[in-house]
Amino acid sequence: MKKLHKFILKSYIGPLVLTFFIAIFILLMQFLWKWIDELVGKGLDWTIIAELMWYAAITLIPMALPLAILLSSIMIFGNLAENYELVALKSAGISLSRIMTPLIYLIILISIGAFLFSNYIMPYSYLKMSTLLIDIRHHQPELSIKEGVFSNDIDGYSIRIEDKDEVTGLLKNIMIYDHTSKRGNVQVTVADSGYMSMTENKTHLILDLFNGYTYSESQDKKKKKTDKTHPLRRDKFEEQKLMFQMDPGDLKRTDEGLFKKHYQMLNLRQLSIANDSLLKEFQNRKQTFSDNLIRTSYFKKERKIHDKTDTISTTHLTPSQALSLDSLFNNLDPKRKEQVIALATNYARSAKSYIASTQKSLFSRKKWIKRHQIEWHRKFTLSFACFVLFFIGAPLGAIIRKGGLGMPVVISVIFFILYYLVSITGEKFAREDIFTAFEGMWLSSVILLPLGIFLTNKAANDSSILNIDTYLQFLKHLFLPKNKTNK
Predict the structure, then answer these.
(1) Are residues 123 and 266 in the same domain?
(2) Residue 437, domain member (yes or no)
(3) Which has the closest alpha carbon to 235: 210, 257, 216?
(4) Residue 440 neighbours by CB distance under 10 Å
(5) Which of the two ends of the chain, N or C, has the fewest CB atoms closer than 10 A to its terminal CB?
(6) Axis-axis angle for helices 46-59, 122-138 (nearest 10)
């Protein structure tokens, strides 16, 4: 390896690692801020939180790695240009493409590693993080009951509170549905206010309720099961204490096998198999719907309205009128016309309802298929994004001639936001079936790749398109003749 290549690689790897960990830290803080309500106050062991943060950091790599490559590329080439090292290399007859050659090979290796990472490590990390988040959310659920929303975290009960005083812990307008009898909503407790607490051993949840009612329906065993009438009992109370059995204080782990078939937990081969199976089921569902609609609606025969006395005279009709449905209908008596119209209306409504329900079912199936296709393409777009953003960052650094964490950070953030917005937009269009999965997921790469080629060409030709002095000089030439003329 030449000394130049060692120098370039040594100069690049340091900023790359630094910016990568900075990006991971910032994204991890954003993740922590999002889930802070689920983590604080639950008595979780520090190892559980560390495990969650570890898997979260792994899942954030697809966002942090392209940003780190873009930022470090701008920094290294900006430093080389600012210190006139890039000028010295070019004056020695070394072109920009030759200077970038070792970094191109490095980025290719990183892109291959990013593909392997997204195909084998990311599904496992998503599985671990998702199951751990679910376990944390269900751990000590009394602390996660939100205002205005029914909470089913306690087995057999559905609890809703309208308001909660964060200072005193007073709960207002409490409603509790008791489903432990498994007979539906047969017992409801409402209270004006109350307090919620846990026992010291964390085995029971205690609810102190004030000023409320308990409504319950009792079932008489002597009555028949078909009898849906039950006596209602209403108990008024000024203070009532309810106690709920809770799981032990240790975090209860969910079986990971329940989520292994989710599209985010699958690798490339598994996504292809799942997509083929879903497409086959989708086509079978469409064919079944078409056959049922034709058989039951388009060629329906109703034999109940036909009787032996029901005959239609067609002797006076011409051959062109013999098969006319309008003529047959016009030959019916008014009473039979009303029956036919009513029957046809019922058939049409039934068919419309069947079509509407099937349309929703097919649309949801198609969206699920799209999710699998999008995830399949995502395995490749991460690798290609690293490659494209390098060819944007490296020539940008050579053009703006600024190193450090000032101007490079601003420009890299702007371009990364552009890349991220286009990626999100393309993915959303793919989910809504406006674009195909291929078009939506590769939209950002298709837009940014020509930009990278353009910037690389300008940097290789020592263009100053981002140099403000160029535009100031242009403005002077534009307005200077007018000033001379006025004189």
Answers:
(1) yes
(2) yes
(3) 216
(4) 25
(5) C
(6) 140
In the numeric block, which tokens belong to residue 424?
């999100």
Reading the chain (487 residues) residue by residue, the pLDDT tens digits are 578 888 888 888 988 999 999 999 999 998 888 887 777 656 677 888 888 899 999 999 988 999 899 888 888 888 888 888 887 887 888 888 888 888 889 999 999 999 999 899 988 888 888 888 877 776 665 555 778 888 776 777 888 888 888 778 788 888 888 887 777 778 889 999 888 877 766 667 788 889 888 888 776 655 555 555 667 788 888 888 888 776 555 556 666 667 778 888 888 999 999 989 999 998 888 888 888 877 776 665 544 444 444 444 444 445 554 456 667 777 778 888 788 788 888 888 888 888 888 888 888 888 889 999 999 999 898 889 888 989 888 888 888 777 666 777 788 888 888 888 999 999 899 888 888 989 999 998 889 888 888 888 877 776 666 555 565 666 677 666 554 544 4
Residues 124 and 170 both lie in one domain: no
Asked if residue 262 is part of any domain, the answer here is yes
Number of structural domains in the chain: 2
For residue 483 the two structure tokens come to 């000033």
The identity of residue 376, as a single letter, is: W
CA gap 337, 155 in Å, rounded: 58
CA 204 from centre of chain = 36
Of residues 459, 464, 466, 470, the one with CA closest to residue 89: 459
Q: Which of 76, 34, 8, 12 is nearest to 412 (CA)?
A: 76
User: Could you tell me the CA-to-CA distances from 375 to 268, 271, 372, 446 in Å, in that order?
Assistant: 9, 8, 5, 18
Q: How far apart are CA 437 and CA 363, in angstroms?
A: 15
Q: Which residues does 122 contact at the CB level (< 8 Å), separation at least 6?
A: 58, 59, 61, 62
Q: Which of 223, 245, 267 is the last residue of a domain?
A: 245
Write out the H or E segment, with its range, that includes residue 444: helix 443-460
Of the candidates 383, 443, 390, 393, the residue with the CA atom closest to the CA atom of residue 419: 443
What would the two tokens of residue 334 be?
A: 């008014």
Q: Is 235 exposed, middle or buried (0-12, 13-18, 19+ CB in 10 A)?
A: exposed
428 belongs to a structural domain: yes
Residue 438 inside a domain? The answer is yes
Please enumerate in sequence order all residues whose Cβ is within 8 A of that of 427, keeping only pairs 6 or more positions apart, or say none. Answer: 374, 440, 441
Q: How many angstroms from the chain centroid is the CA of residue 235?
A: 46
231 closest CA partner among 219, 213, 222? 219
Same domain? 288 vs 412: yes
The backbone torsions φ and ψ at residue 310, rounded to the nearest 5 degrees and listed phi first, read: -90, 95
Q: Please give the order of strands across the beta sheet that includes 232-245.
A: 157-164, 171-178, 187-198, 204-217, 232-245
Domain extent for 194: 144-245
SS3 state of residue 475: helix
